[in-house]
Structures are given as C-alpha cells and as structure tokens.
Sequence to fold (912 residues):
Amino acid sequence: MLVDIQNLRIAFESRSGIFEAVRGVSLHIGTEKLGIVGESGSGKSLTARALMRLLPTNARVTADRMAFDGIDILNADEKAMLRIRGKRAGFILQDPKYSLNPVMTIGRQVTEAWKTHKGGGRKEAREAVIDLLAQVRIRDPHRVYDLYPHEVSGGMGQRIMIAMMLAPDPQLLIADEPTSALDATVQAEILRLMEDLVSRRGMGLLLISHDLPLVSHFCDRVAVMYAGRIVEELSAGSLAQAQHPYTRGLLNCLPSLIHPKSRLPVLNRDEAWLQS
Amino acid sequence: MSKGLNALAGLLASVFLTLFGLVIVTFLIGRVMPIDPVLAAVGDNAPQEVVERVRQEMGLDQPLLEQFLRYVGQLLHGDLGRSILTQNPVTSDIARYFPATLELATAAIILAALIGIPLGVWSAVRQGTWIDQTIRVVCLAGHSVPVFVLALLCLLIFYAMLGVAPGPGRQDIIFQDMVPHVTGLLTVDSLIAGDWDAFWDALAHMIQPVCILAYFSMAYITRMTRAFMLDALKGEYVITARAKGLPPRKVIWLHAFPNVGVQLVTVLALTYAGLLEGAVVTETVFSWPGLGQYLTVSLMNADMNPVVGATLLVGLVYVALNLLADALYRQLDPRVR
Amino acid sequence: MTAFSQQWLLTETPSSRSQAAWGRRYRAWLALRSNTLAMIGLVVIVTFVVLSLAAPLLATHDPGSQDLANRLARPSAAHWFGTDELGRDLYSRILYGGRVTLGMVIAVVVLVAPLGLAIGCIAGYFGGIVDRILMRVTDVFLAFPRLILALAFVAALKPGVESAILAIALTAWPPYARLARAETMTVRNSDYIAACRLTGAPSGRIILRHVAPLCIPSLIVRITLDMSSIIITAASLGFLGMGAQPPSPEWGAMIATTKRFIFEQWWVPTIPGIAIFMASLAFNFLGDGLRDVLDPKQR
Fold:
C-alpha cells in the first residue's frame, strides 16, 4: 500500500477561533487510480497537500496515522520529506499559468526536477528532458525547451507540469484539479494523457476534482468528500449504487440524453450530513 | 514590433516632457529669489551705471519669456553660468565636485544592497517571528534617524573617543593633490597610480559616511524586499518548486527571488537617486568636498547659478536612473521583453 | 468600554450606517491595539503632543533667556538637560522646539493631503487628457529629490519656518496624488459608481462622496509614515540653516548652532538629535502598524 491515512484532521487557527477544515479522513491508495470528488471547501485539496506536507504553516495537522510507503509523514523531518517530494510523489497544481515559474525557461524548470533527484550531467539531463517533453506529446520539444511559460498555452503548460512531475519517476502522482483551468476541449486530452502515462509506468494516481462523472471515467475508485469528511467510497463502475444522499444528489443534477428531464433538480443540503 | 516602437516613443515623449518641466522649475527657482542677482554679482556699492550694464549683460532687463529662451539656449550649449563664489563656470565646478559624491553614493548603494536584500528575504521567510520583528525595528529606526545626527555621533564615537576612524574630509592632508586626477574617484585614481597608501587613506575616510548612507538606504531596500518576497512566496510556483523536492534554500533563491529581482531593480535605482539627497547632509558634516557641499555653500551665499545647476544635474540623474530601471526591467522580465 | 456598547460595536448585524462604520473603526482599533510597536508609537506621539502644547507650563526656564556665565553646562538639577552655547536651558528649549516641529508637520499635512487627494482623484476619475497633464506635472516634481528641491525653493524665497513649510509642501504632494489616483482608478469603473452616475449625481458629488472616502485609509497610512520624513526634512533644513532660524528653538537649528561642541560637550547637540529621532520613530511605528490594519493588501 502506497498511502495510508487514518483519521486525518486539519484545523486553522484564526482570531475568531479554530476552524476544522478536514475532520477525520481515512484513505488508502495502492498502485491504482483514486479520485476524490467534492465541492470547493470540502477539504479535498488540503488532504492532498497534507500528504506532501505542503500546507501553510498555520495549519494544524493531526492523524492517527499518515504514511507514504511505510514512512511516517506526520513525524518525518524535512530531509526525509525532500526524498519523498518529487522523487516518490509528484504534485500537479490547478493552473499552469501560476504554477510554472514565470521567469524561468520551461527547459530549466523540467531539468531542475530531473537533476535534483537523478543527478547527472547537463547534456544527459537535456536529452532526458527533451524525451520527457516528447512523451507528454509536445510536438516540438527542442523549441519548447527554450520558451517561457507565458509563451505556451494552458494545455501545453499542463503537459509541461506533467513532464516535470514525472521526471524523477515517482510512484504516485497527485493531481489537484489539473484540468479545471483549461478549455473543455483540452481537458479530456490531458486526463487521457495522464492516465495513459500512469498506467504505463505502473504508478498510483490521486486525482482531485469537482467533476464526478469525469473522475469516475478515469479512476478505479472514487471517494466523495463533503465538509471535511469522506461520505462515501465507491468503485468507479458502481456509481449507480451510490447510497449517500449527497452523492445521489450530485448524480441527479446531471443532465442526461437517455433520460431527459424537463428540469434539473437542485441539491438540497441536509444538516445531518455534517454530523454522521 | 510596432508595439515596442510605440512604447519607446511614449517613453521618450514622457522623458522629454519631464526634462522640460525640470528646466522650467529650475528657471523659476533662479528668477524668483528675493536677492537681486545683479547686486550679488557686482556688490552693493557698485555705481548705478555698472549695475545697469551688468543687468543688460545678464539679460535680466528682458521679458521673462525672452530670459527663459536664453536660459534654454545656454543649457543646450552646456552653459550653466558662472559661480559668483568660485568665479569658475558652474559646469567645471560640478565636474570637480560630482565624482566625490558619486564615489560615496555608489559605495553606499553596493553596501546597502548587499546587506539589505538578504535581510529583506530573511525577514519575509521568517515572517512574524522575532527575527522579522527585529529587522523591522532596525529598519524603521533607519528611516527615523536624521543623517546628520548619526554622522555627528559617529564622529564623536569613532573619531574622537575611540580614535579608530579618520576625521572629516576626503583624504589626509599629506595625500592632498598627490594622486593624479583620472576619474575623480579617489579610490580608483589611487589604484591606477598604484599608490596603496593613498588608496587605504581614501578608503578609511569613506567608511563612516558610506556606512551612514548605506544604513539609511538599507532600511528602505530591506522593507521593499520583504514586501516583494512575501508576495512572491505566496505564488503557486513556490508550491510547485517545493513539490519538486527542492530544499528551502533553492526554493527561496532560485524560484521566489528571481521573480522579485525585477522589481528590486527599480527600487535600487530610486534608492541610488535618493542617496544623492542624503549626501547633501552627510557631506556637510564630514566636510566631504562633493556636490552636496557645493550646493549648500552656494545656497548660504545666495549664489544661484550653482544651485540651479546642481539641482538640474540631480534631476537629470533621477530621470536617467528611472530610464535605466525601465530598460533593465524590460531586459530582466521575460513577460515584457 | 461597557459590555453593552462593545456588543453594539461588534455586532454582525448593524442596524444603521453609522453603527457599521463605528464597528469597523472599533475593529481596526482592536487590531491596532494588539500591535505593540504601533502602540508604543502612539503613546510617544501623544506624549510629544501633550508636552509641546503644555510647554509654557512644563518649562523650567524661558527658552530664550541667556546666561553666558553658565554656558554648555552638564545636566543638573537646575538644568535637566544642561545648557547650550548661550547658557539657555536645553530642557525648556526642547519642549518649545516640539511646538515648532509639530506646527510645521501639521501645516505641511494640512496643505498637502487635500491637494494631493484632489489632484489624484480628479486625474483618476476623469482620465484622458486631464489625467495626463496632471500626472506629467506630478512626475516633474517627483523627478527631484525632496530635500534638494526644498533647499532650492527655500533659497529662492527666504530662509525661515514659513518658507520651509511651503517648500516641504511643494515637494511632498506628488506621492499623495499618485496614491489617490491609483485608488481612484480601481473604483472608477465599479458598478456602484456607475449606479451613482445613472441617478444623475454630478461628478463633483461622486468624487467627494464616493471616491475620495475610499482613498482615505491608504492616505492616512501614507501621511503617518510621511510625518517622520517631514520631521526629518524640516530638521535637515534647520540644520543646513535654511529652515527655522536661530534663536528659534527648532531641533535641527539647535544642532546646527552647537555641532562644533560635539567632541567636548557632546550632549548639547545630541539631545535635540534624540528628540528628532524619537518623534520620527514614533510616527514610523504607528504608520507601520496602521498599514497592517488599514491596508492589508500592502502587507
């Protein structure tokens, strides 16, 4: 098992008191594709960032257990984390416009990821990076190598992010809403590319999204989060058997060509979902 | 391409207008003063016809517009008039005094940047801790202490009480006029001449005024660096860099800092120009024979040509530095290149 | 502050516009109160103002009365800070000097802040050619270092407190105009300004009632931080002989007339120096704290 999380809680302290954003999440990920779905503020991104220990310093993280490949992440020192981040787990952020460094060339940014974990000479690194750029199906990798992030499109930027995070050959790829900043036409393309690379390399994937059908299409299992908790975990094929009213509500809100409805229902939130 | 040309044209137009404004303001300063420049030139007891003749020679009997055009014409010929006090053309006076100020200001900005930038970065990285607070207080104190008070106290402590620093002036009397004049920068000139004793002497005399000026500008550089860095550290690309597994040192200096460097160039240019101002007061205390002292001495004696000339020069340096910052900005930031 | 009124101030559902406004001010005050440096600054400023206003009551001597037999005396029971080169009581002179400095600072701010605000708001609100002309003028004044332009102005007028105030004011307004313009530009195209315009409000009313008030917080921060630099510029002018003239007990001028005693009677020029430093530092502390409270985006 790659990731094992039990009873993860993340709280933020502020002037007006303590706010608990993640309230007891338990998860495990093997060499598989797990999707986490939830609305904004449900704590899905925080959960992913906690796994990489990339939360802001004012976050209070507690858990019964949080391990990556047997390494206790809760108590690991920064040095141990440096050997996990990038090297064993990659992390793709939402919008390449902001997540790529604007004043560094693309080649330098990807090379840096490769060299940090694999070492090696400059020439060797360049070749490896060009190869990686080709793997994420960038047509003209030699040209793109010397471009700056603002000179490429969003879809291209996200391909570069994927190449950068796959460079050190990690075992797990975490993607935090990797396509929500992209045009609808490019979204599926990027997800398909990611799924393909992950499967071929035998990696685990943690895909975070607010788009339930999209996630179920690309993942093996889906966890549905609501207000800091996982309310339901399903295999991707059995969405129809969803039990929790929130999941069912989400599915009901989707338009369908086979069973057209004259009017889409509105999700009615139940106070009881916050407890359970 | 044409977009770049347009921007260049706009920039040049704005520079031209600013320069024109500078000329108008300096002209007015030179004309509205209560002391009659003619009387200042010929003395109070000169006979009436001499006064009238000099008035005509100076063009002061003409209408204001006429005088202004004459002033602009002289400026275009590089003529700033003559100093009553030194009897030299203002331009040659400035050529003699300006290098001393330049030497002071340049050494100070280098020192200030070398200390101020790392302090600002450190302060931002440790935001909210006692380190941040200490740096904040040190900087605010730097903003608050009058340069001349600090200069006097330095002279008192290091020169009079401890005797570790040389007194006022730019060099010891024994080295006076010993170093051949090349650039006007004493440290550089003595090195060119290979005169190590003169070099160390010049350097020793610089230490106090440079440290004081540097502290003054460091305060500003540090505060700005901190503010920029706090902004940069919030960037998503910093998360990316950390997620790549880079150690904090590399995340800060290779990823966040280069994004700040672009803005810092502007700050450094402005600080450098501001140093010319700090030099006015510092030079008075340290008897430093630079532009600031030239300006104040002329002011006390109502010798307006040097005042106008020096003010104009400093204004020009301001404009030039702003242009330079703008050009560097375009060079450094790939997004506007 | 009673519990009732605190509750009235901190309520999440204010029932009137003034209650909301006072609640907001009270919250800002609470945030400021937790900032140690800012509170130190505030206390020093209040002390400084009180001491200056009460100078005639607190002074032990006439600040102008000379006693040449007892010049450059060390601090003692009779002369708490010692005496200066003409045997005048330093303590009393420092108190009266506070009045001069305070007066200059207030005069400059009263002249500069409304002017800068007006120019900035008008330039930002109308845009176009008005904006370009006004900003070009601003740039010209920004192109001079403050002290040097002030020096030149004072020399052109006549050394003295009034000229110094005028000169500092002339050099101090451009940053305010820039700031007010930037703030105005951000709200100019907002919907509520458009709504105002649709109801037929004249431009003057929109600027005065809807645009200018939004510039006030950042302007207050700027003024507070600027006060320290006004104090220093005023003192520098005095020190260079271009500001307040002796025998006025202005701090900078006091240092100028006594700086030659720095090596023997070092306290004589040092004490006014400390006074300038404290006053200026206090405004910087307060301004820095205010910026954190009123202008969180600039933090």
Summary: The two ends of chain C are 30 Å apart (CA to CA).
